[in-house]
Amino acid sequence: METNRWFGIIFSLEGLLIAFAAVICVSTDHLHLFVPIMALIVGAHFFPLAYLFQVRIYYITGALLCLLATIVMLTFPVKIIIRDHQIMAWWVSVGFESALILWGTGLIVCFKGFRMLSMVHNRNGNSKIST
Predict the structure, then answer these.
(1) Mean of per-residue pLDDT scores for the chain
(2) Cα 47 → chain centroid
(3) What integer pLDDT is reported at residue 121 of this predicted model?
(4) pLDDT band of 124, cuts 50, 70, 90
(5) Which bin fits 29, alpha (ψ -120 to 50), beta or left (φ > 0)?
(6) DSSP codes of every residue in 20-45
């Protein structure tokens, strides 16, 4: 099966699982679980993408997102109260830390892409000079 089709399957499955998790969390009155579960789903989807696109950093990204969600659920309080304001500690911590992981991954992939383009450009530039 071609790469584009597998990507579509992986991405669609991720979306379906997130929607399914949302419905279950809302219908069972456990909405506090939704963001960490979503982070687990997003993290898990990086493993087949790492294999599909041969991008090793995706394995690390997937592991970090899954580990983050697990650690937060096991160690953080679900919510905290600060001056009469209720803050969903799980949502805030998983959300911000996931953003850092994903932005970091994006920057690493971007810089690797720039490096590869530079190598190709230098190789093509050098081959034109030598001919």
Answers:
(1) 94
(2) 10
(3) 86
(4) confident
(5) left
(6) HHHHHHHHTT-GGGHHHHHHHHHHHH
Residue 34: CB atoms within 10 A of its CB come to 19
Beta bridge partners of 82: 85
Which residues, other chains included, contact 48 with Cβ-Cβ below 8 Å and sequence gap of 6+? 6, 10
Torsion of CA 84, 86, 87, 89, to 10 degrees: 110
Residue of 71, 77, 75, 79 lying closest to 98 (CA atoms): 71
Average pLDDT (86-108) is 97
CA atoms of 108 and 96, how far apart (whole Å) = 18
93-117 average pLDDT score: 96
- The two three-digit tokens of residue 51, written as one number: 């294999």
